[in-house]
Amino acid sequence: MLQVFTHVNFRMMYRTKWYFLAFSALTMVVSGWAMATRGFNYGIDFAGGTAVQLKFREAPRVQDLRSALEQAGLGDVSIQKIGGAEDNEVLIRVEQQRVKGAAAGGEGGEISTEILESLKTPEERAAVRSGKIDLNMASQAALQEWLASRLPNAVEVAEAVVRYRTDHQGLLSSPGAIASIPGVPPEAAALLSAESTVGRFALRSVDFVGPTAGRELLHNTAWLILLSVLGILVYVWFRFHKWTWGVTAVIALVHTVFIAAGMISLTGKEFSLTVVAALLTVLGYSINDTIVVFDRIRENLRLYREHEFEEVVNASVNQTLSRTMLTSLSLIFAIVAFLMFGGDKLNPMMFCLLVGLCFGTYASVFVAAALLVIAYRRFGLKYVKA
Amino acid sequence: MNLDLRWRLLLTFALLILCGYVVYPPAEQIRLGLDLKGGIHIVMRVKTDDAVRAEIDLSQERIRSALGEKGLAPQRTSADGTNALLLEGIDPARAGEVRDLLGRQFPQFQASAPGPGRLRMQLRAADESGIRDSAVRQALETIRNRVDKFGVAEPTIQRQGAGARADRVLIQLPGVEDPERVKDLIGSPAFLEWKLVKVPPGIVADQFRPPDNLDALSQMFGGTLPEDVEALPQDLVGQDGKPFRVFWPVTRTSPITGNDLKNARRDQDRFGGPAVNFLLTADAGRRFQDLTRQHQGQLLAIVLDRKIVSAPRINAVIADQGIIEGGNFTLESAEDLALKLRSGALPAGMEILEERTVGPSLGADSVRQGIVASIIGSIIVVLFMLVFYRMAGSNAVFALALNVLILLGAMAYFKSTLTLPGIAGIALSIGMSVDANVLVFERIREEMRNGRTVKAAIGAGFEKALTAIVDGNVTTLIPAFFLYAKGTGPVRGFALTLSVGILANLFTAVFVSRALFDALLTLRPRMERLSI
Question: Are the beta carbons of B326 and B309 closer than 8 angstroms?
Answer without folding.
Answer: yes
